[in-house]
Design brief:
Blueprint: E1 7-11, H1 12-26, E2 30-34, H2 50-54, E3 59-61, H3 66-78, E4 82-86, H4 97-104, H5 107-110, E5 120-125, H6 140-144, E6 150-152, H7 157-169, E7 174-179, E8 186-190, E9 202-205, E10 210-214, H8 218-230, E11 236-240, E12 243-245, H9 249-259, E13 262-269, H10 274-285, E14 295-299, H11 310-313, H12 317-328
Length: about 325
């Protein structure tokens, strides 16, 4: 008999689909729920075919009521299920913010550890797709500030597959931010690999002159920046953080101790963004290794603009390269 093919090239969206399929096959307590996740297969077709194969009691089309979706998932988790909830777009999560912050994040502590809530909240996030208002936001810092939640964001198909598996298996609630502008980016996925820790950062390009730290949609941009800088003789290390809460400060510190400089890149506004926490902590940890201040590149402190202006709003190659030049000029 021919051996099953375990390494396949697939888009990030397909990798999430395959990971959900594997979880539904493996554990009858796993449920997928959300607006249009069933018959339609989701607006990005991430859940395509799952309801047909697993039925309406496992892949559930819900009403347009995010607070009710998450509240129902909390009740199901209390009864032993492992719900995977889809919020259709990033900006739609705020009606459910109360349930996530006051119930989902607090129940474990409130019960003195007796109650676990293994709920995954999937949120397609970020810009770059020319969408209308409330469809391109990056609210990860709002959730990272809340104790009791894990916040992760894959940058490639392989991580999307394995991080979703790990999120579903976690007994803690996980907010799973999917970079929608990378849904169609393809990469090899080994479905029988042994994944590393969920919250461990990864060096995706080694370098010696400066560290670029990013997660989700900005990792690909940082690799492009490193390629452009290499043409000018600059060696940039690219660190994929993968997790926003907890943050792998040890890996960031180790990289900065090698390079002496750090630029943090994310789509979310720089003001009070996750880069601020990284900059503060690394300045404390690496003060005597830093050759320049930690710099941050991100969105502006303004509402997300109309589609025709989003390229001006989002961090791009030139803005990141400018920060690199400023850091190297010290």
């Amino acid at each position: 008999m021919a051996e099953a093919v375990t390494v396949r090239t697939m888009a990030l969206a397909k990798a999430v689909n395959e990971s959900l399929r594997r979880a539904l096959e493996t554990d009858p307590k796993v449920l997928v729920m959300g607006e249009d996740v069933g018959k339609l297969g989701g607006v990005f077709r991430v859940t395509d075919g799952l309801q047909k194969d697993f039925g309406e009691s496992r892949v559930i089309d819900t009403p347009l009521a995010e607070s009710g979706i998450v509240g129902t998932a909390i009740g199901l988790a209390l009864r032993g299920y492992r719900p995977v909830v889809e919020i259709q777009f990033d900006g739609f999560v705020f009606p459910a913010y109360d349930q996530i912050v006051t119930q989902l994040a607090k129940m474990h502590a409130r019960s003195l550890g007796k109650v676990k809530l293994p709920v995954v909240v999937r949120i397609p996030y970020g810009g770059g797709i020319g969408a209308v208002e409330h469809h391109s936001e990056s609210p990860e810092a709002l959730f990272a500030h809340v104790a009791g939640l894990k916040i992760v964001s894959p940058s490639n198909a392989s991580d999307a597959y394995w991080m979703m598996q790990q999120a579903i298996q976690s007994d803690d609630p996980v907010i799973f931010f999917e970079p929608k502008r990378r849904y169609w980016d393809k990469a090899e996925v080994n479905t029988e690999a042994i994944p590393g820790p969920l919250h461990k950062a990864q060096v995706v390009r080694p370098g010696t002159d400066l560290t670029l730290a990013a997660y989700g949609p900005m990792v690909k941009l940082c690799r492009e920046v490193a390629d452009a800088a290499a043409e000018e003789g600059k060696s940039l290390e690219v660190l994929d953080l993968r997790s926003v809460s907890p943050l792998d400060f040890d890996s960031i510190q180790a990289s900065v101790e090698r390079t002496g400089r750090l630029v943090v890149v994310h789509e979310a506004p720089v003001f009070f963004g996750s880069g601020a926490e990284i900059a503060a902590r690394i300045t404390e940890r690496c003060f005597y290794h830093l050759e320049a201040p930690v710099l941050r590149v991100g969105g502006y402190h303004a509402p997300y603009p109309p589609a025709r202006l989003e390229e001006e709003y989002l961090p791009g190659l030139d803005r990141v390269l400018d920060a690199v030049d400023r850091a190297l000029a010290y």
